């Protein structure tokens, strides 16, 4: 900046004009140099109130603020339960997706056909309501990207179809009326829940009774009512709301079968029950009044597992169909639940009588399903409560399946001081007596699809208009590797992602 | 249950134990309670020292401290922290709360 002093003569170059008052008369406005108001006319600055810095220490003054009116939100807030309904919504059809030509339905004929391995079969449309009722579909599965729901026939599916065929009444084989117990295990996205869905579809096709627990965690998370049962030691608990929901689901899904079966046993606990009523009416007693839901469920269970009528009630007795029992998320039942006892300690899941009932079906020698059937209990190896006893039990099961005897040194044993839960280990004890009617507990591990199955699956994506590449061996092999060896959940993500890339480049 | 914790003198610790004692799950709503559970809860709550009774007790305790001229009493009256906290920087809470006539 040029100084206003002349360095040669030490005099001011431009003396201040006399007309202006001295600068001290009014505060000089520096921030607005082009202000047109004369400085003299400016009003004197108002005296400010006590500022925060000048306030006395510890005087307890408050900064006063004007209460602003809350801004009215023009958007209507979502109604109670609306967002949850949106989150839990299951969309099974997408009209934008192409219809796959020549797609077959899952039927008693196609479910055992080995030639259909690797193709996607549609779920029969009349069964969709029943499948919805047992909550076989989960919100995060990708049903909404296809025209209609369909599932792939993989090796395990066809094996299961054959099992259904053998157990059902139409196949007069040695395995008729047998009970098969399986624990489905596998990593995240390997299709365990969809495997259960396929089982339920097959059971509905075969006119079995399906009893499903779609979310095992819900029963032990402490989100529904519970009540102690008097005179039990250790104290056991009923869950009236959860039981009544189970009954409601079961009736909704199996209405056709249950309405054709009549009560054949004495149920002194249920006074409201008429001797001539159907099983549908019996079950509906339970979900109308949650207080008696558990006795009703027990009565329904004895009816469904009855092989003959009680004396005096033989008139309308019809043989009971086989049953499919599915539980999704078994590992949640192996630890303490979130419920509390009266002295504030946690209730072990096995003390909840609902859970205990379903777990007791796994134990050997109980012969729980007298008319035959299938028990499928799924558990994930990825996103789970870590229960050492369960992991060890599954290892022991796998070892027994591989032919290792429990006395051999290779048989998995618990680590010393591991504190393994004896109740969990009891579930996986080997059967002492083998019976022809009841198979041993097995573990079935679901892995990735084979390359051929992957090809069939990706072709289904292509036919639905999601993938626009030419499906050749190289491309399929690429996707198979990217999906961790054919993990079907990852394949589905890849199928969607390819769609996105396509739309971006086109 | 949040509604138990709305009482002065009942926090998470007490409410969760009360719920466990009467076998009520923590996400239960008041409307879902059985008649007997409501009666049990009311009976227990009526025996507990909560709300105004508890406020009065706390205020009386502080008053006693002031009257006996203890250090804690003086600090309460001066609007200063009572339990040895520093007063150099942050003491908004005692400034706000500790008065001659303490309210709760």
TrEMBL record, chain A:
Residues 42-83 are annotated as: Disordered. It comes from the Eukaryota. One of its GO terms (cellular component) is mitochondrial small ribosomal subunit. Residues 45-68 have a biased composition (Basic residues). The keyword Transit peptide applies. It is found in: Mitochondrion. Belongs to the mitochondrion-specific ribosomal protein mS29 family. It comes from Penicillium alfredii. InterPro entries: Ribosomal_mS29. Coiled coil: none annotated. Keywords: Mitochondrion, Ribonucleoprotein, Ribosomal protein, Transit peptide. Its main location: mitochondrion. One of its GO terms (molecular function) is structural constituent of ribosome. The keyword Nucleotide-binding does not apply. This is Small ribosomal subunit protein mS29.
UniProtKB/TrEMBL annotation, chain B:
Residues 78-104 are annotated as: Disordered. It holds the Pfam family Ribosomal_S13. GO terms for molecular function: RNA binding; structural constituent of ribosome. GO terms for cellular component: mitochondrion; small ribosomal subunit. Keywords: Ribonucleoprotein, Ribosomal protein. GO terms for biological process: translation. Belongs to the universal ribosomal protein uS13 family. This is Ribosomal protein S13. It comes from Penicillium alfredii. The lineage of its organism: Eukaryota, Fungi, Dikarya, Ascomycota, Pezizomycotina.
């Amino acid at each position: 900046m040029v100084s206003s002093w002349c360095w040669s003569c030490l005099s001011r170059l431009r003396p201040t004009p006399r007309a202006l008052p001295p600068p001290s008369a009014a505060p000089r406005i520096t921030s607005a140099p082009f202000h047109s108001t004369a400085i003299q006319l400016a009003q004197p600055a108002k005296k400010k109130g006590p500022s925060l810095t000048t306030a006395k220490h510890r005087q307890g003054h408050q900064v006063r603020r004007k209460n602003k009116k809350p801004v009215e939100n023009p958007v209507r807030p979502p109604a109670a339960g609306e967002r949850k309904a949106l989150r839990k919504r299951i969309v099974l059809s997408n009209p934008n997706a192409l219809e796959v030509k020549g797609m077959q339905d899952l039927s008693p004929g196609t479910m055992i056909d080995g030639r259909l391995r690797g193709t996607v079969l549609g779920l029969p449309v009349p069964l969709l309501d029943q499948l919805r009722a047992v909550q076989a579909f989960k919100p995060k599965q990708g049903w909404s990207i296809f025209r209609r729901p369909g599932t792939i026939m993989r090796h395990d599916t066809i094996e299961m179809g054959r099992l259904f065929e053998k157990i059902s009444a139409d196949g007069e084989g040695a395995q008729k009326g047998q009970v098969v117990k399986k624990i489905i295990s596998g990593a995240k996205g390997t299709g365990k829940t969809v495997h259960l869905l396929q089982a339920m579809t097959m059971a509905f096709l075969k006119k079995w009774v399906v009893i499903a627990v779609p979310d095992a965690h819900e029963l032990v998370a402490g989100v529904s009512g519970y009540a102690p049962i008097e005179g039990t030691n250790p104290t056991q608990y009923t869950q009236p709301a959860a039981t009544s929901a189970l009954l409601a689901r079961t009736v909704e899904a199996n209405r056709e079968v249950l309405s054709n079966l009549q009560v054949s046993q004495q149920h002194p606990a249920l006074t409201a029950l008429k001797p001539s009523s159907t099983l549908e009416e019996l079950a509906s007693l339970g979900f109308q009044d949650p207080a008696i839901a558990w006795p009703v469920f027990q009565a329904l269970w004895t009816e469904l597992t009855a092989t003959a009528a009680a004396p005096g009630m033989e008139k309308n007795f019809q043989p009971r169909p086989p049953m499919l029992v599915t539980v999704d998320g078994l590992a949640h039942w192996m630890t303490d639940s979130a419920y509390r006892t009266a002295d504030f300690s946690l209730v072990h899941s096995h003390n909840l009588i609902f859970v205990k009932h379903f777990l007791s079906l796994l134990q050997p020698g109980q012969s729980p399903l007298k008319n035959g059937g299938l028990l499928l209990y799924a558990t994930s190896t990825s996103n789970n409560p870590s229960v050492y006893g369960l992991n060890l039990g599954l290892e022991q099961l796998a070892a027994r399946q591989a032919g290792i005897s429990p006395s051999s040194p290779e048989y998995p044993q618990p680590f010393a001081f591991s504190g393994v839960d004896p109740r969990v280990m009891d579930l996986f004890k080997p059967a002492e007596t083998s019976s022809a009617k009841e198979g041993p507990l097995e573990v079935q591990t679901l892995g990735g699809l084979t390359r051929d199955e992957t090809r069939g699956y990706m072709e289904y994506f292509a036919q639905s208009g999601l993938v626009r590449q030419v499906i050749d061996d190289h491309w399929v092999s690429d996707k198979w590797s990217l999906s961790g060896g054919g993990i079907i959940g990852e394949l589905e993500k890849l199928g969607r992602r390819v769609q996105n890339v396509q739309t971006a480049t086109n | 249950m949040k509604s138990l914790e709305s009482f002065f003198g009942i926090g998470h610790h007490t409410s969760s134990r009360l719920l466990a004692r009467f076998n009520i799950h923590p996400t239960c709503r008041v409307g879902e309670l059985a008649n007997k559970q409501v009666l049990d809860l009311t009976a227990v709550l009526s025996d507990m020292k909560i709300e105004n009774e508890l406020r009065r007790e706390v205020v009386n305790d502080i008053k006693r401290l002031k009257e006996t001229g203890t250090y804690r009493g003086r600090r309460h009256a001066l609007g200063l922290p009572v339990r040895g906290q520093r007063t150099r920087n942050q003491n908004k809470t005692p400034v706000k709360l500790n008065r001659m006539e303490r309210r709760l």
